[in-house]
Amino acid sequence: VQLQAFGGGLxxxxxxxxxxxxxxxxxxxxxxxxxxxxxxxxxxxFVASLRWSGGRTDYADSVKGRFTISxxxxxxxxxxxxNSLKPEDAAIYxxxxxxxxxxxxxxxxxxTLVTVSS
Length: 118
What we know:
Elements: E1 2-6, E2 9-12, E3 17-24, E4 31-38, E5 45-51, E6 57-59, E7 67-72, E8 77-82, E9 91-99, E10 107-108, E11 112-117
Parallel strand pairs: 2-11
Antiparallel strand pairs: 1-3, 3-8, 4-5, 4-9, 5-6, 7-8, 9-10, 9-11
């Protein structure tokens, strides 16, 4: 499995960005795809996840109502639409994948940096 995240950049407070994660290497029908982030000096934290096959999505409380996770099966890509960005959203964002039966995310992308200016 290969995951490649991109789309980060510099944005002003209140602005928006869309991150993309290109997934390859297998069929992801039985996978959970997720976004995590890690800010300087902080632990990595969960942001959002979805079932590749469709249906359930989950969000961290800190991003509910502002971020939306989605996927395009045909492009094999997972997206994170981030609106109303705040300085505390600044971090390196990672995409990750795990199979349904596992609680651990086994596959990680390389990360993309999001900077939010105040």
